[in-house]
Write a structure and sequence with these properties.
About 40% of the residues lie in helices and about 15% in strands. The protein has helices at about 15-25, 55-70, 90-110, 160-175, 195-205, 225-235, 255-265, 275-295, 300-310, 320-325, 330-345; strands at about 5-10, 30-35, 50, 80, 120, 180-185, 185-190, 205-210, 215-220, 220, 240-245, 250-255, 270-275. β5, α4 and β6 (about 180-185) form a beta-alpha-beta unit. The chain is globular. The N and C termini lie far apart (about 45 Å).
Length: about 350
Amino acid sequence: MNYRILVTGASGFIGSFIVERGLQEGYEVWAGMRGTSSRKYLQDERIRFAELDLQNPEKLRSQLLLYKEAMGGRGWDYVVHAAGATKCLHAEDFFRTNADGTRHLVDALRETGMTPRRFVMLSSLSVFGAIREKPVREGAATGTVYSPILLTDKPQPNTAYGKSKLAAEHYLETQRLFPWTILRPTGVYGPRERDYFLMAQSIKRHIDVAAGFSPQEITFVYVDDVVQAVFKSMTSPQAEGKSYFLSDGRVYTSRSYSDLVQQHLGNPWVLHLKLPLCLLRAVCWVSGKISRLTGKMNALNDDKYHILSQRNWQCDIEPAIRDFGYSPQVMLEQGVEESIRWYRDEGWL
């Protein structure tokens, strides 16, 4: 049986890789996206496209019914909801896209009789906010300083992005007889990603800026491992109705990424700066104000301050390993090398 999969946000960083993996595994892949979205990374002729308006419930239902008819009334077997906003000028825009968009999609799938075998939503570790920030050990020389965030911890998001993703999670969790799985990756990096690229670009320009002076422990996950988790959890009976963290299983310091970038750029001289959190907060506040006044998104804002100032990004991936065989394959050294190579090949660096 040729299973069908819908990937929302298919034109985005993670979504485009999910589409590629689905084709490799023999799925009939539908790329869900806005009509104005770029198809730069969706050139394979086997891809089918579904224009979806997640902000307009009535239009969305009509769109789904048309695709259902085109598929002979069967609909999609799996839906991977990778659509979402990571940057917005106003907090309400996060909720409109991440929370309302998820609710509208779930409601429309149910109302049109298109409930899939599994609905996998990509959320974020950011839904937990800055918890477990109290050191359990003093000094990195003794090992990790903080304890990992656990699935049993209470989410306390401190960014508009994290709050909107948590609202989407809460809605999904209330849906009876709707088979869902939630994946919460930590910082996702790899080819096509732009936020970590900005850090690499800064290092190429000889500047590396870190936030604060107290120990900071960071986690990463390469995009291929997020995609791996999507497809393994999607078909796992044990993963239904559960949420999971995703990382590569290791803990890094704030210098780990920048040192590897510097190495793979050929070791240019770099001025490593540490900004006091009070100064960083002022810079982010001013930058956010300018963004709202000009209507142009800047890299620094209130959300970014909370992300940069958070000291502990550890998370427990054992449930994902146990329930659906998640097995991170790409550690940071290899992932950074592959990312820098891609940025160079594509003329980004």
